[in-house]
Amino acid sequence: MEYFHKPVLLAEVLKYLSCTNGSTVIDCTLGGAGHAEAIIDLIMPKGFLLGIDLDIAALNAARVRLARFSQQNFSLVQGNFKDLDRILTDAGLYAIDGILFDLGVSSTQFDRAERGFSYRYDAPLDMRMDQSQNLTAADVVNTYSKEELARVIKEYGEERWAGRVAALIVRTRQNRPIRTTFELVDIIKNAIPAAARRRGGHPAKQTFQAIRIEVNGEIRVLDQSFRDAIKWLKPGGRLVVISYHSLEDRAAKNVISDLSRGCICPPGLPVCNCGHKPEVKPITKKVVRPTPSEIADNPRAESARLRAAEKL
């Protein structure tokens, strides 16, 4: 299957990154290079883009998609954006003009049944973005305690029935290991009351999201990664974050809000003593969402939320 990536909120990304010829841009979540291709078109011939992705399949597809550009205009690195400090140091880059995070899982990862991300295909429980790592979804499902499973499913999936799902997973695996996506789907369906299963889409959606986030450590690295990214921006440089659920969006919102604060003295002091200065200013007054026409053209864009900030 071709690793095709239809970029979400592309016009908005280009607008808020505000890239021009000569800009240096970091795409922290390269995917199929849909955003990267459009960015390089804007920043060449003097600009440079560094693309980062955990998934070697994404990197291989991106090289094909970007083959029309000069090697002087881009470089691709397999890695995790949580290691941004090391990656940029190794690349010899500094004073960055724009940094993009397009969070979550790519469409192709969902659509490739063998990757085990989707509840719609029967496949081994995998869900690893980086297939060289050890922890898989099967490990989470078969080795985490009932309490750990319930916490993961409730915290990362915001699943109302997390305790029931965790309890039935543990009870089922006492007889046999849970090895496939459809086995897990059946357990989830049996754990959730029938009336609840008839509302709000596929009953396995939230639990699968939660386990995927746990396998890939997606949420716990966001706060520090966003702060690291802002540190590398030059004055006037832009951070753009696209998120797909409330936990990701909350992390972006909180970091931008925190770093845009000025005085942090206790209320009531007549004169500021802290000397604290804001590091960024928000350039999206409220979260930016896809237009109805984009959602009609690409239904997977429906949950996308974009926030952006500029380095002061």
Taking the sheet with the most strands, its summary is: 7 strands, mixed
Please tally the helical runs, counting DSSP H or I stretches of 4 or more residues.
14
Helix content: 40-55%
Oligomeric form of this entry? single chain
- CATH class type of the largest domain: Alpha Beta
The mean pLDDT is 93
Overall description:
- This protein is of the alpha/beta class and 312 residues long.
- The chain has 2 domains: 188 residues, Rossmann fold, CATH 3.40.50.150; 95 residues, Putative methyltransferase TM0872, insert domain (DNA polymerase, domain 1, Orthogonal Bundle).
- Helix content is 42%, strand content 14%.
- It has 14 helices and 7 strands.
- The chain has a 7-stranded mixed sheet with strand order 3-2-1-4-5-7-6, sandwiched between helices.
- Helix 3 links the parallel strand 2 and strand 3.
- Helix 7 packs antiparallel against helix 8, helix 7 packs across helix 11 and helix 8 packs across helix 9.
- The chain starts with 9 loop residues before the first helix and ends with a strand.
